[in-house]
Fold this sequence. Notes:
With 497 residues, this protein is an alpha+beta fold. It has helices at residues 7-13, 64-76, 183-201, 241-260, 306-314, 320-331, 335-343, 347-355, 360-378, 389-400, 406-417, 423-430, 438-451, 453-460, 467-477, 484-496; strands at residues 14-25, 80-81, 88-91, 101-104, 111-120, 123-136, 140-144, 156-160, 167-173, 213-223, 233-238, 268-273, 278-284, 294-295. The strands form three sheets. It has a nine-stranded mixed β-sheet. The chain has a three-stranded antiparallel β-sheet with strand order 4-3-14, with no helix packed on it. α13 packs across α15. 35% of the residues are buried.
Amino acid sequence: MTTLVPYDEALARYEPVLGIETHIELGTRSKMFCGCSTTFGAPPNTQVCPVCLGLPGALPVTNRSAIEGIIKIGLALNCSIVEWCRFARKNYFYPDMPKNFQISQYDEPLCVDGHLDVEVDGRTYRVEIERVHMEEDTGKSLHVGGATGRIHGADYSLVDYNRAGIPLVEIVTKPIPDTGVAAPLVARAYATELRELVRSLGVSDVRMEQGSMRCDVNVSLMPSGSTVWGTRSETKNVNSLRSVERSVRHEIERQAAVLDAGERVVQETRHFQEDSGTTTSGRSKEEAQDYRYFPEPDLVPMAPSREWVKELLGGLPELPAARRVRVRDEWAVSEKEFQDIVNAGALDLIEETVQAGADAPAARKWWMNELSRRATEQGVELTELPVTPADVVRVSLLVAEGTINDKLARQVFDGVLAGEGTPDEVVEKRGLKVVSDDGELSSVIDEVIAGNPEVADKIRGGKVAAAGALVGAVMKATRGQADAGRARELIIEKLTG
Length: 497
């Protein structure tokens, strides 16, 4: 195994150049060229037909909803939508592509020359988009046996063709230079922003864990001061935002070691290993001519009318960048605080909580403090916690009306996270309501005063600030359930009245 060069050392001698190819499955009800269902998780090979299986005589028909979806993506990425384009056959043999060719687009893509701006550490990077084109997804291979889940060492392989033919949009960036030490963060920021943008359009769920968004990450290095780009590697099917960042970092360290040793970086595909954060060699990377592209003879060219494109442009929703500006202004938070919210993946959750009835400061407090801490402790994304915006709204209201306090609210979240029910059910089951009844509080206060005579004497002597110590004792005695404000009032009344 190649000894890696430490990241900072690698960047002192080499300049990275990035490129990212992103595949996004569209959320259409039927496949790209046939009427088969696209429902995720169906039993293997139950959503297939002669068209997506490539049987002789079966002819494809283009899915209009899919074309509408890709045009929306192209427009949101500031692309030009061409007036005429066509599909091509991309020929290769893979067992998960039953036709032995893929219907794609080659030299005539539907959307070209766009860009997406991303921000990293206060600097804006413009990622230029070369093309956005439409194709069909492949099936899925399952290699059974062996230690890696890959074909090498497997006992046998199974193929599920349910995914074959699902509409797949490929978004290809132009080379991204001048990222320096921020390269891994820029790659992650781009993938994050692209996912949010596509989700806002409503054309895909972009769930990376289910494969509806996958990134192929290209990295090359060139010596500092050089203008000749190095040979790139392509890490295939990276399926999480964190892994996009880690794969870039590892490839920089690996390629720097290869170049330092006087060896040549091989142009190849590589696989990212989640457990180790490293990449391993896949296969040599094909060039375009290896696929023997030629125009698809069974499909007519596409010529989206300018009126249709204009209509789709006018119907685009508020895009993430504009939404962030609006929300930041509405919440009146600093740039740093807002960036912390975005980085924590809490923006959607907080906004949904506010829309459901909580005030913005309370929503931010619970998601960014208590719940963010829980997510970090459990090693999961904030969105993966079994707490909903509605739960946070209810906890906020319970605190506001005095039924519970902040300390008890944390116990309520404990119960919700443990699956004990809604916030109200947890309050009832755990007996977490604030004790505000004067009679019940009075008896506890009498015991606390009797147990702390020196503090009580100070209060009697006029040092009212000392009441805080007795309030703390009351809170401890009631397991945090006393109404602290009312307890303080009663203590002072008893000792100075």
